[in-house]
Amino acid sequence: MYGWPKHESAAGRPLGVICDADKNWSLLWADEFEGSALDASSWTPLEGDGSAYGIPGWGNEELQVYTAGNAAVAGGLLSISAERSGSGFTSARLTTAAKRAFAPGQGETLRIEGRIQLPPGGDGIWPAFWMLPAAAPNGSLPYGGWPRSGEIDIMESVNTFNQIFGSIHYGLPQQQAGGQLSQSTVTGIFSGAYHLYVIDWSWDQISWSVDGMQYGAVDYVRVYTNAWQGSAASRNSTSG
Q1: Residue-by-residue DSSP string for 131-185
Q2: 30, 86, 143, 224: most buried by Cβ count inside 10 Å?
């Protein structure tokens, strides 16, 4: 991940996390995917079908099994492949949990971004660049289990890749099991070329943009002040 002063071009930079410091951006963390392997100090491959984590199908009725071998680093790029394996499918899921965590402070804006190329579309393909809250050492989350402690989806696309979703999931005070969803979308052709996916996250607002064009924003008024703590205001979030 990479950050830079606001006036600089983003071309050629794979990923980014920065803090504005009154819009004079300061780099917090970067990964240019140099070398031939993932940086183990930042990334952990998750493996299996989710059962080991108590969420068979990873909570989405997913059919694939995740393996470390479906992620590769070469030529300054991280590649994640989805493949047919016998009668099933494999892919990769990488997390920075317990290794890297970021959230804006009071009066600050945090920018998180990734330069990502989506593959050709296909039924059942669901790439995502997203964040979950960081857990305490005892495994507890700030406001309880999903979705009460929130989720920020920086980029998701499904099947045809002609639409990008930017979303937050959160739980209202009643703590509904399925949570609440605030979502923005933008249409276009997103496979076959690199695009820059960004959120700007402040204490009271999150906005989404692609290639410098903002297409959505949400603030504490829209998600209710009491619910905002579990969606965006937590200081304990991590990219996932």
Answers
A1: EEEPPPTTS--BTBSTTTT-EEEEEE--TT-SEEEEEEEE--TT--TT-EEEEEE
A2: 143
CATH topology of domain 96-239: Jelly Rolls (2.60.120)
What confidence tens digit (pLDDT) does each residue in 187-237 have? 999 999 999 999 999 988 999 999 999 999 988 766 655 555 555 554 444
Instruction: State the catalytic residue, choosing from 8, 61, 113, 151.
Output: 151
- Sequence-distant (≥ 6) Cβ neighbours of residue 185 within 8 angstroms: 163, 164, 165, 166, 215, 216
DSSP H or E stretch at residue 216: strand 213-219
151 has catalytic annotation: yes
Q: Which of 200, 205, 203 is nearest to 182 (CA)?
A: 205
Our answer to whether residue 62 is catalytic in this structure is: no
Amino acid in position 204: D
Separation in Å, CA 1 to CA 11, 13, 32, 191, 234? 13, 8, 7, 21, 21
pLDDT tens digits for range 103-115: 998 788 999 999 9
Pick from 91-95, 155-159, 231-235: least confident: 231-235
Tokens of 223: 């998600």
Q: What span, in angstroms and rounded, lies between the C-alpha atoms of 55 and 58?
A: 5
Catalytic residue among 8, 47, 61, 156: 156
Task: Give residue 22's pLDDT band: very low, low, confident or very high (50, 70, 90).
Answer: low
